[in-house]
């Protein structure tokens, strides 16, 4: 069963806030000059910010943070954040699949930015059932 798409906008202001909260002030997250010097296409979002936004999608689908049993990803491509007011978008989709273990559902997650996958092997295990009304499933 496909779950509803969720989209998250990321701006340079979000990167500044995340840097302050996480303590990660690496210049690849705020300086175009530095980011391009080290071979990046521009300023990139913190990987853990990307993972957290996708995790927010998982908790929304699951109905509560404590319904998430397991969650993991591999980073495949950076999320480049332009220096404008629009920023960029991370689009998150998932397919819910039954597991062999009763009471659990596996979510196979796809996260893209500008049409390119930014995470691989993104999966979560959540307690079943998913809430009533998610993709038409009754809970």
Automatic annotation (TrEMBL):
Which GO terms fall under molecular function for this chain's record? fatty acid synthase activity
InterPro entries recorded for this chain? Fatty_acid_synthase (IPR003965), HotDog_dom_sf (IPR029069), MaoC-like_dom (IPR002539)
CDD domains named in the record: SAV4209_like
Domain of life, per lineage: Bacteria
Task: Name a single GO cellular component.
Answer: fatty acid synthase complex
Q: Which SUPFAM superfamilies match?
A: Thioesterase/thiol ester dehydrase-isomerase (SSF54637)
> Mind listing the GO biological process terms from this record?
fatty acid biosynthetic process
Pfam families reported in the protein's UniProt record: MaoC_dehydratas
Family that this chain belongs to: Belongs to the enoyl-CoA hydratase/isomerase family.
Q: Which PANTHER family match?
A: (3R)-HYDROXYACYL-ACP DEHYDRATASE SUBUNIT HADB, 3-HYDROXYACYL-THIOESTER DEHYDRATASE HTDX-RELATED
The name this protein carries in UniProt is: Dehydratase
The protein's organism comes out as Micromonospora endophytica
